[in-house]
What we know:
Elements: H1 2-19, H2 30-37, E1 42-44, E2 52-57, E3 61-66, E4 69-75, H3 84-90, E5 97-100, E6 112-116, E7 121-126, E8 131-138
Antiparallel strand pairs: 1-2, 2-3, 3-4, 4-8, 5-6, 6-7, 7-8
Amino acid sequence: MFSKYAFVLLALAGACADSNAPIRYGETTKAALVADKGQPSSAEKPLENSPTEILVYPDNQKYQVTNDVVVAGFREPSSDEKSLLYWRHRFKDCPTTFEALSKRDNHLHPEKELKCARDGVSVIYDPNTDQVTRVVEHAQK
Length: 141
């Protein structure tokens, strides 16, 4: 009798765990993302005839999908994450790289990226103020 109930509880726990599975960049499919997060509020094509699209969700959460696989996620930083100093401390044991990003038409001035490839996290920041504007998650290396 106990084993019957234990099996049901384990099955229910497993089903709940699968519905909140984390996104694995480079592995999660677009269909799995939509099944987990729901339909996006919009989709953007950065370039015509490109296999890449950006799915936009509430709170400006975005996911880059290329060839039907989620390759990156973009979000706004939380209040604690807005300082570049926060990220320098968080990445203290990770080899990091800094890269200047080309200025896009919709940005006021050039931005830079601080990247920790090992952890699969980058931050885009304003080098004039050291304020982080976006957090990017991607496949770990």
